[in-house]
Specification:
Blueprint: E1 2-6, H1 13-26, E2 30-33, H2 41-56, E3 59-64, H3 66-77, E4 82-88, H4 100-115, H5 117-126, H6 130-143, H7 147-155, H8 162-165, E5 172-177, H9 185-194, E6 198-203, H10 205-210, H11 214-217, H12 220-227, E7 234-236, E8 239-240, E9 246-247, E10 264-265, E11 271-272
Parallel strand pairs: 1-2, 1-3, 3-4, 4-5, 5-6, 6-7
Antiparallel strand pairs: 8-9, 10-11
Helix pairs in contact: 2-3, 4-5, 4-7, 5-6
């Protein structure tokens, strides 16, 4: 079995591979992480999916943020070519409008146009966890000078709406981050609420920072269960007690004394003061 995974806007194939490949490899599934073409992100992703399906037959499609949008849209169009879907940090449904991830992408694109790459990277690094700053500096530098175009393309990308997602016949494993202001957990919950054969897991941004493979670890086993015929939707978080009761990740328990970060930055590579 073969899987194709798509990065978020401004991110790169290395991060998508880090997120999904360990769990897929452990399951005996080969992984193809697609390097985005910043001047044609969506069409490049779709060509990669078309090519993989021609080569391998039915495939697993997956993605992070805008990559998840493209993956589910392609799965809706080609149900006969899809074994299952892995959707991490879905950003919105339908038109992007003022969704935080779209607002962040527009904000960052304008910053890059006005101030240049070096200045924006410095500002991003000052307000981001070290792991995220290093990841985005790598991918943003590689995509320059077309990075603003990639961000603006994502900000205007229409995702399948909830009615369309209700027609997604492919088994789908979804993971959201409960403390990510750029990719609100409510979006992941709404996708899970309408996709017929789906599972939902939650993680925290600190978990992703410690090891991006948690995204695959929280979705691939669920997807394999769904593919195996266990079509009852499952909802689990990132840890269970010794007695098997489900407990929320620590990020889901609000700490009134914990300070909030400034400009929001998501693992998919978007940053913006307007993102909450």
């Amino acid at each position: 079995m073969h899987a194709v995974v798509l990065p978020g806007t401004g991110s790169d194939a290395r991060f998508a591979a880090d997120a999904f490949e360990p769990a897929l490899t452990a399951a005996g599934i080969t992984t193809e992480a697609v390097e985005p073409n910043p001047s044609a992100v969506v069409s490049g992703y779709r060509r990669a999916l078309d090519s993989a399906a021609m080569t391998h037959g039915r495939i697993i499609v997956g993605g992070i943020s805008i990559g998840a949008v493209v993956a589910v849209a392609w799965a809706l169009e080609h149900p006969d070519r899809v074994v299952g879907v892995l959707a991490a940090l879905p950003p919105w449904s339908g038109e992007p409008a003022d969704a935080p991830a779209a607002t962040s992408a527009r904000f960052t694109a304008q910053q890059l146009i006005d101030e240049g790459l070096a200045t924006v990277i410095d500002a991003m690094s000052a307000s981001s966890p070290p792991w995220l700053a290093a990841t985005l500096e790598r991918s943003w530098t590689a995509q320059w000078p077309d990075l603003p175009s990639a961000l603006m393309e994502a900000a205007h990308c229409t995702a399948p709406d909830l009615a369309a997602l209700g027609n997604l016949s492919s088994p789908t494993a979804i993971v959201g981050a409960c403390d990510d202001p750029v990719h609100p957990i409510e979006v992941a919950e709404s996708w899970h609420g309408v996709v017929p054969h789906s599972s939902l897991a939650t993680v925290g941004l600190a978990d992703i920072g410690a090891d991006p493979a948690i995204l695959g670890n929280r979705t691939v086993p669920d997807l394999l269960s769904l593919i195996g015929g266990e079509h009852l939707p499952r909802h689990h978080t990132d840890r269970e007690s010794d007695h098997g009761r489900i407990q929320p990740p620590s990020c889901c328990i609000a700490d009134p004394d914990e300070p909030r970060l400034g400009p929001s930055v998501g693992p998919d590579g978007c940053t913006g003061a307007g993102a909450g």
